[in-house]
Every structure is written in structure tokens, then in C-alpha cells.
Amino acid sequence: MHDPAAIAALGTRLGPDMLAAVQAMYADEQTDRTPPVVADAAYGAHERQRLDVYAPYDAQRRPVLLWVHGGGFVRGEKASDAHPYNAHVGRWAARSGLVGAVMNYRLLPDARWPSGGEDVAAAVEWLVAHVADRGGNPARIVVAGTSAGSVHVATAMQLGLLPPAVCGVVLLSGLYGATAPEDRDVPYLGEASPLQPARIAGAGLPMLLACAEHDPDRFQAETLALADAVFAATGRLPRLSVVAGHNHFSLACHLGGSDARLASDILDFVERHA
């Protein structure tokens, strides 16, 4: 269950031990194992270019939420036999009356920037072509990413790869070019990030930006830099939240659980824009 004190005690240093602790913390809330209505749909030729779709019973023309997982460019899965995470976002979307899609994408060492953004765009194109068959509205898609997944969504925005069907984006604790890549990011992004907050903001899409109270400093700085770029471009801040009582991993893992603050913000954002 959500325990802000326990999350705070984990600190801000990312690693597999923190991830395991966070996943264990929410295991009693993330018990839904509803299978997808479409499993392992191929949106490209690579074995990682696959997505799953979750939908309410008898859905018709419902807005679509596409979830892009994190994993530091080297790991992550849309569904796992070991835990419900990432699939939990698609299931939560379906429980909330949306059509949820959860995608995999190419990873290091097979992939370099901008492959993740290209994969996001290809997954959206698959949804545009096929999601109506499962009750989704192919003209009303919101794309949401966390951590590396947010990098890929931002890449697709910066490069103008997203079709008009995308009505908005949700970016959780990503890297947008405001800080120098760390050593672990260099194999994917290069020595200098090719991303630029001003160019991402220039895509003109409605955004919901969030980071966590106990995120590492760089993710907070990146979120604020992108929000500032949106303000510079439009004269208005995007929807922005520093979510209290959460860290880099719990920001995504808790969605659909007892702490409904961020989930409610996302659903409201989808309702307003899709």
C-alpha cells in the first residue's frame, strides 16, 4: 500500500533495490490480472515492437491511452509473469472507461536515439489503424510515458512524428535535454542530448508534466525546464505536478491504487483533451 514515509526512507538514489522495494510496496493494490483483448500485436518487424490492448466490455469509441514504460533504455516490459507493472496502467485505463494500450520498444544495444520515438510513432499508427476494432476512438489518443518512456514520447514530439490523432501527452519524470546525459544514458542519447525543451514544447500538444517529490534532482530540473519552455512558447504553464510522497518508481507503480491524485489528474486531462 502507499506509504509516504517508507518511500521517503528509500531516498533518491535509483537502482534495482529501490525498484524491487517499490514494486513490493504496491503489490497488494496491483492485483488485477485481467488479460488484454489484444496481445502481442506487431506494430513493426522487430521482436520488441509489440503492444497489448485492454478495453472495457462492449467499449465503443472510447479515448485511448498509450503507455510507454521506463527502464533506462536497457530493460522494461509491457507485461510480465513476475509482476503486474506496466500492464497495470492498461488495466487501470480500461477500468476507468478508456481503451488502454501498453507497448514495448527497441532497447540497447539494438537501439539508439531516436529509435524509441520512432517506435512510439509506429505504435500510434497501429492504434489509428486498428483500435476501433476494440472499441477505441482512433482520432482521440493520449500518449503517456514514464522515465525513458517519456524520453521516447518527447522525441516523437520534437521530430514531428506523432499524427493528428494524438490529442495530448503525459510525461512523467523524463529527460528532455536540459541536463547533460549521465554515463548510463550516453549509449542511447550520446555525449550531448539531442533533445531540446524548446523544440519539444514547439510541438504544440497539450501536456501534463509530473515528477516526484523524491525524484533525483535531474528529473525535477528536466520537468521544470520543459514547463518553462512551454510557458515561453505559449505564455501559459502546462499542467504540472510535483507529486508529494512519491519517488521515481512509485510515480508509475501506484497508478490505479489507493492514492488517486495523479491518476485523477491523468483521467481529467484525457477527458479534457480526448
What layout of secondary structure does this protein have?
Blueprint: H1 4-9, H2 16-25, E1 38-42, E2 50-54, E3 62-68, H3 87-95, E4 99-103, H4 115-130, E5 136-146, H5 148-158, E6 166-172, H6 186-189, H7 197-201, E7 207-214, H8 217-234, E8 239-247, H9 250-253, H10 261-273
Parallel strand pairs: 3-4, 3-5, 5-6, 6-7, 7-8
Antiparallel strand pairs: 1-2, 2-4
Helix pairs in contact: 4-5
Can you offer a commentary on this structure?
- This protein is α/β, with parallel strands linked by helices and 274 residues long.
- The chain has one domain (17-125, 138-273): Alpha/Beta hydrolase fold, catalytic domain (Rossmann fold, 3-Layer(aba) Sandwich).
- The protein is 35% helix and 21% strand.
- It contains 10 helices and 8 strands.
- The protein has an 8-stranded mixed sheet, with helices on both faces.
- α5 (148-158) links the parallel β5 (136-146) and β6.
- α4 crosses α5.
- The longest helix has 18 residues, at 217-234.
- The radius of gyration is 17 Å and the shape is globular.
Short key terms for the protein model shown above:
274 residues; Rossmann fold; 10 helices; 8 strands; AB_hydrolase_fold
Q: What do we call the CATH homologous superfamily?
A: Alpha/Beta hydrolase fold, catalytic domain
Number of strands: 8
CATH topology label: Rossmann fold
Mean pLDDT across all amino acids = 97
How would you concisely characterize the structure shown here?
The protein is an alpha/beta fold and 274 residues long. The protein contains ten helices and eight strands.
